[in-house]
Amino acid sequence: xxxxxxxxxxxxxxxxxxxxxxxxAVCASFQSAIMPAMALLDRDGVYGSPRFHLAAKxxxxxxxxxxxxxxxxxxxxxxxxxxxxxxxxxxxxxxQNLCRLITKIKLRAGRKEGASAxxxxxxxxxxxxxxLTGGEEGPLAAALAQGGSRAAFEVVKRLTEIFGxxxxxxxxxxHFHREEEYRNRVAIEIAEALQLPLLxxxxxxxxxxxxxxxxxxxxxxxHHRTLATAGRLLARNAERYLKPPAAMRALFVDIPNAIANxxxxxxxxxxxxxxxxxxxxxxxxxxxxxxxxxxxxxTREGMQSRYGRA
Length: 310
Known about the structure:
By secondary structure, the protein is α/β, with parallel strands linked by helices. The chain contains ten helices and seven strands. The longest helix has 25 residues.
């Protein structure tokens, strides 16, 4: 048994080539008893989560909700911005905190691109959330590239201080890249030193290998390039598809606990959109105001900013 905890949909800024229903359909083809759950992490949002949840519900699969949140400069100081932190929702409070966190960074950025969260933002909204150390765009990889193994250790330690030691998992991925295996070795050493669990994922960007070409086309569009000029922006191979549990077990045959931990991790993610009901997460408002008038005023300001005064 295996649970894929790091998937994206096509809503993730053209990064993924599959819509949520396709990801669930492939997952269901493995049979729910073999892969009983899957997580969807869109970038800086939960765009695909409703469709992902509905498709998973029909297929008898548990849908975990999360996001990859873009980060600004992060403690320790040697780690600059430009990486993304994968976080997953464990409880209703966690879902509320994730929504508040995303709303805060979007409002702060305004119409400018480059919304990002700081250490302080995560500290304020950490309750009910569990974080992974990420793949090639995660904080561990960024720290390793910028400051070596010591910096990588320090940033993972900082994550345990923000989210709590029991809420940090060291992520391993294998896509047959040389630098990836070096990062995995460092990650395993850090996990042992800090007594953190390992977690195998595939960093899924598309449902099946044949969709790699579509993902490359989306990447070229995102960066305003043609396929012929996109170069290293494109994927080096087609390994980021939704692999069946047997393939993942074979890939991590030397680290079986990283596979086993996916099922235990999944059991901790109790929240689903079934638990949301009709009550939206409460947004903090100034004294003397309520949410609806504040939303109305923000909508009016946005309309005037985009279209000018009538």
